[in-house]
Structure formats: C-alpha cells, structure tokens
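Encode chain A's predicted structure.
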Amino acid sequence: MKTHYISWWNLENLFDTFDSENRPEWLAKELSGELKGWTKEVLEKKLENLSLVIKQINSNNGPDILGICEVESEFVIRKFIQKLDIPNRKYEVIHIHTNDKRGIDIAFIYDKNKYTFDGKIFHYEVMKRSATRDILQAGFTTKNNNRLILIGNHWPSRSGSQYKSEPYRMMAGETLSYWLKKIMEIHSDKAAVIVMGDFNDEPFNRSLREYALSTNNRKKVVYGKNPYLYNLMWKLYGEKKATYVFNSDLQIIDQFLVTKGLLLSSSVFSCDESSVRIEIFDKMVKGRYNTPIRFGRPSKKSSFNFDGFSDHLPISFIVKEK
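Encoded structure for chain A:
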C-alpha cells in the first residue's frame, strides 16, 4: 500500500520584490502602493518562514503534493522551492499566470520522484467585472500508473460583505461541478479527483452545498447520479477548529473534497479520513482560537510581522493507493 501526503496552503500575498523585472506593467502599477517596502530581505524572510513550516509537514518529510494560492509568479514559486531543501525530494511546479487584479495565482508543487504530470492544464478565471481568483486543474500519474486529478481553488473573497459577494463563489462552484461532470464523462465516473483550496466559504454555505454539490453524506457521493463531492472537513468543523480566524470568528474555508473515485471499495485510491488535519507548528498561532500569525506587508505596518507566516493555516490528508 502506497501513501500520498497531500497538503494545501494559502501563502498570503507571496509577491516578488517591489522592483521585480518579471512583473507586467499593468500589475506593477496596480501594486505600486501595496508593495512599498517589499524588499529582497523581506521576501527572503517570508520564504524562510513558509519553508520552515512545509519542511515539518509529514514527519519532516514535506508533502508529496502541495497546492498553494496567493502566489504572484512561477519565478517566486521556484525561489520558494529552493528553500525546501528536503532530502530525497525533487519538487517541480505547475503554474499559470492569471489576470487577477492583484496578480495572485494558484499553483501545485509536486515531487517528480513520485508523479508524472500529464502536461495538460485547465484553468478558469472568475469574472467580477475584472478577473478575480481562479480554478486550476492538473492531472498526474503515479508510479503504479494510476491517474490522480487535482483541482486547486481560490474563490472570490467576501470583501464588500459575505452575501453581496456570494454569487461569485456560486459561479465558481457551478463551474467546478461542470468540470467534474466532464472529467467523469472523459475518464469514467470512478475518476479519482481531489479538490482543494481556499473557498472563502465554509462547508455549509450554498456555494459549496448547492452549486459545487459538496456533502458530508458518503452514500450520496457513492450512489448519486450527479458529480457529488465528499467534503472531508466536516469533522474539523464539528470540533470547532479553524483554518482562518476573522474577528474571533473561527472559519473552515480551506478544504479538501473528493469524488467517489476515492470512496469506492473497488477503487485503487482511498482517502484516510482520520488523517485530515490542520497543520500547526511552533510559533504559528496565537491566542485561545489558534489564530494564524500572519506575515503581512511593510506597507501596512499595523499588520506586518517579520516573524509571521500567513493569515491561513495549512491543511493535509493522506491518500492510500493499492
């Protein structure tokens, strides 16, 4: 039995330096004020802090696959990978530039020793007058020659109020469900798909339940005709745990969901529900609610913390392969 350690983390505004030559002119103009003081020294410290966490995941072996969001470019992701000097790991990156108005994207970091990327990327940008946040799909083949499909999500934020912004997350959920339907038409309804991301909604919200067809009913996923997703985060929600804390409001907005291809007894893959966890290591959180200690930005001195990490906590779970 082989195991696959899968993780996800919103890295909170992992930008290249304020004077980066890799940044398009429109984005440089957009971020001119936000990146004030974002020097090489600040970026290096941010990368060091983030990598310290990743290297402790999976008993100091790092994840096999890591989904990330709020990253500006492949260039800065590769700088991040350089910090992940984990023995026997050969990390590679999958990323596509988006037109997000703040230039923050989704990416996958995977171990080339364990997976072969099939070279195909499917990508969708949510439109809110201009592009904002996205969905990214990539396919992998394991050493046992089994296909595993990953879909990373970063859905539109709740800025402007939760309910005014909700329709955009509903759009993202509907699109995700359509993708799953097409995947099952192409690869069979037993395709093993892992959906992960920062959804900016919780498991009980409409965007996930009604539009992405997410549920905590295992039988509904296995026997239902629609492309239902089994949400692995309900247990942590019931335990009053959180991946994000806003004004003392504990939220599970970073989530893992899986198709029936990881639930069927006949499948080569299975998900270990007991392994689903929020990764918390030394000095990452504060207070009674385990509030993530964010790194912030020098341009907002009130929230800038040179010893911080991200405003989200990473999550992980284990997939088993026969």
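The chain has a mean pLDDT of 95.
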